[in-house]
Amino acid sequence: MSDKIPIGIVNTSYWADLMLIPALQSHPNAEVSAICGRDQERTQQIAVKYNIPGVFVDYRRMIREADITALIIAAPHDLHYQITMEALGAGLHVFCEKPLAMNALQAREMYDTAESAGVIHMVHFTYRWMPFFQYVHDLIDQGIVGGCYHCEFRYLADYGRNPEYQWRFDRKRANGVLGDLGTHVIDLARWLVGDIRAVQALLGAFVKREGVNGSRIDPANDSAQLLIEFTNGAHGFIQASAVAHMADRGWQQQINLYGETGSLEIRVPFWGAEAGAILRVASSSDEQFQRLEVPDVYWGGVDRSDPFGIFSQQSAGCRLFVDAITENRLASPNFYDGYKAQQVVDAALESHRSGHIQIIDGLD
Questions:
Q1: What is the largest CA-CA distance in the chain?
Q2: I want to staple 107 with a disulfide (CB 3.0 to 4.6 A). Which of 155, 281, 311, 339 is the partner?
Q3: 132/140 Cα distance (integer angstroms)
Q4: Got the DSSP string for 107-146?
């Protein structure tokens, strides 16, 4: 009789193939026992590759029939709410990719239901676990910036420059790059600086796209810029773009924080000759910035050239989810964090529509 936690996964994309399933199978207490995908052939191929016994094309049937106690949801964004609610109704622990939902009302219901069910719930805000951002978080806690005056958060990529149909840029299915990459930087901003109380947004849909089979599409944004005010009074700027030509850098993140006692800047190109975190700090008495290296303790043996290795070697992402279930303890980031990020997304969408600053209510 196996004492491993039987887990189902709803997704057969490259992300499940290269990230989620290998990470789960690297954990001694996890067993991926069922997988669900819309394409029977693709799902069967993934099942054979990873020796997954249960193969489904209907997630409802998998939830009913598979012998699982936890579910990983990595389906398109418009399916997160309904799959999560079905899973919670069956008493399953749930790990959901970001964004948690299509709007804050859905996200709040998901959080409240998960809490009432007494299950473990998590949102996959990937970058919280990156060693360089963990180090930045600790530096901020140690007072290197002090009270934050203003800050900048950027996530730039180029996957949206292709005009072919992508569901991420279909307003019926997703909230564009704001919901895709934007929720990552919104979560980092909350984690590093604090809750956000006001948003003024400018969104753009620059690439002309067709819908499925050449049909018309209601395009979601592929560029998002947000002016924000935090509850602690700090001012900020958030930028997310899927149409920034990044050449050999691939994707790049950048965070700059300027405060009472100093400044901190970090730039992270993920590929190319400049790949890796470039971190600089200056106290209020310094005349120049100094570069810091992330201490070895934050890497825990993970190859510095592959920071995503933490997800198969450390208690991070879905491996942390398994640890939380095993130890019956709270996990973070959870559905509450997903709800708070979704509040900011909703406010940004409404701000762009109305042209006015949006105040975020319900900061409970």
A1: 65
A2: 339
A3: 12
A4: HHHHHHHHHHHT--EEEE-GGGG-HHHHHHHHHHHTTSS-
Mean pLDDT computed over every residue of the chain: 96
pTM of the model: 0.96
How far is it, in rounded angstroms, from Cα 256 to Cα 159? 24
For residue 203, is pLDDT > 60?
A: yes
Q: Are strands 70-73 and 5-10 parallel, antiparallel or unpaired?
A: parallel
Q: What is the mean pLDDT of residues 310-332?
A: 97
Asked whether the domain spanning 128-305+343-354 has the same topology as the one spanning 5-125+314-332, the reply is no
pLDDT digits (tens, 9 = 90+) for 13-35: 999 999 999 999 999 999 999 99
What is the pairing mode between strands 358-359 and 196-204? antiparallel
Give me the residue spans of the domains in the chain.
Answer: 5-125+314-332, 128-305+343-354
CB burial string 64-95: b at 16+ within 10 A, e below = eebebbbbbbbbebbbbbebbbbbbebebbbb
The pLDDT assigned to 1 comes to 38
Q: State which fold the 5-125+314-332 domain adopts.
A: Rossmann fold (3.40.50)
Q: pLDDT tens across 143-181, in order?
A: 999 999 999 999 999 999 999 999 999 999 999 999 999
Structure tokens that stand for 155 in this block: 């996530």
Pairing of strands 278-283, 290-292: antiparallel
List beta partners, residue 223. 204, 241
Instruction: Specify the 3-state DSSP secondary structure of 224.
Output: strand
Pick the CATH number of 128-305+343-354 from 3.30.360.10, 3.30.565.10, 3.40.50.300, 3.40.50.10770: 3.30.360.10
